[in-house]
Amino acid sequence: MSPQSLNYTDAAILAPMVRIGTLPVRLMALDYGADLVYTPEVVDRGIVGCERVVNEDNGTIDYLSKGVSIFRTHPSEKSKLVFQIGSANADLALQAALTVAQDVSTIDLNCGCPKRFSIHGGMGAALMEEPEKLCGILKNLVDNCGLPVTCKIRIFPDRERTLKLVKMIEATGIKALAVHCRYRDERPREPGHWDRFKEIVDAVSIPVIANGDIKEFADMARIRELSGCTGVMIARGAEANVSIFRKEGRLPLMDIVRHYIRRCLETRNHHANTKYCVMQMFIEDTKSPYYRPLCDAKSFRAVCKVFEMEGELDAWVKKQEEHGWPTDLDSAPRKAAESKEKDAKAMAAANGKANGKGKNTTTADVKMVEVVAESTLGKRKQGDLKDEAAAVVVSTSASVEVVEGTPVAKKHAAGDGASSQPTPADTPQPDVEIEVEVTTTTTTTVTTATSPPLA
């Protein structure tokens, strides 16, 4: 029996956006009228093998890797939630889909991201250059994941090539196709090709979701009339003010900012992601008196202070403490740098003692490991190592009220993870392996990770 697909008719949809489309923004989009919401892209290897944990204090569900939340959701959004996977491997894509299947309604394959981190791994828009591989991944998902499957693409400059691809994709059995109306090398500052939607709509029988240059609520009606598309997907318009989904018009920005911070407070959203998302709301108004103090904020309390919300933070902390629930919104969940450096020193010392022929590892040798590791960490902070293949998507915390009957976990999840694309200064980064020469005769491999810098 074919899984029941979501209703895309006249749907207003929150687009998948890395770091922005995490749970707080998704829930607010639904509050303001969005019909469906997409997760940020989550790379297949990042989610496979994660531990599923239900948080006692707010009912959110985390998928944890080494204690870090790679994906966070809440049961209230399940019926409208599309989980987007970044993958270039049919088997890994299926494993990723099966990992989260109980908490989402649809699986989407990202075939449109033009960013280097995605292209470099053969994912995103790179899949459009290999249509057989793309369709193989989709077919495996359609046949085996047990959920409706969709995908999101861009367009080729060549119209016939685009139409050939969308027909191949439709033949895999997917339920809907989202189309971003730009070429792979075009960026948001360049106008989208709205004139290309209609030919795609006419070429397939499945719902087509139009994406690109939707800046106002009224734009959704305009693009439907122009193209005949089934649904409309909004990205940057929602990033700037998520109340764009309101039929009555957008709310004042400060109302949105304070609503967002309250959501983050309710749900222990890590301050780094909270700050990042709020900063994007001011990206068109960097002369605002709030912008510079926000840039300087190095804690959740500092973010609250910018918007005179410290009293609400204090009330939230008091409530959490009364129940014995976590209150830390600032500590990075990854402390791998320090712990792995410590392990590396111990390992180097042990190897030296075990080596009867060569000289034993001395304090100076261990110090060399420490110095080189610290140097590597410094380089990571400067952005020298940007494109790791093992990257995974940031998934920070947020929630709504606890749902009755939600199972209670015995642990609380950390609120952020590693990013699947080049990360901002306030986002923890994935592990990287380096080789360090310890002595003239011994080489020790040290696995280290950057400590997330202060926001």
Describe the structure.
By secondary structure, the protein is of the alpha/beta class. It has 3 domains: 11-245, TIM Barrel (Alpha-Beta Barrel), CATH 3.20.20.70; 253-323, no CATH class; 333-385 and 431-455, no CATH class. The protein has helices spanning 23-31, 44-47, 90-100, 116-120, 131-144, 159-170, 197-203, 217-227, 236-240, 253-266, 271-281, 291-296, 300-306, 310-323, 336-354, 363-381; strands at residues 11-14, 36-38, 42-43, 51-54, 61-65, 68-73, 81-86, 106-111, 149-153, 176-180, 208-211, 231-234, 432-437, 443-448. Helix 3 runs parallel beside helix 5 (131-144) and helix 15 runs antiparallel to helix 16 (363-381). It is globular, with a radius of gyration of 23 Å.
Number of beta-strand segments = 14
CATH superfamily grouping of the largest domain:
Aldolase class I
Question: Low-confidence runs (pLDDT<50, min 5 residues)?
Answer: 357-455
Radius of gyration: 23 Å
Helix/strand order, N-terminal first: EHEEHEEEEHEHHEHEHEHEHHHHHHHHEE
Structural class: alpha/beta
Q: Examine the coordinates and then state which fold CATH places here, giving the name of the CATH topology of the largest domain.
A: TIM Barrel
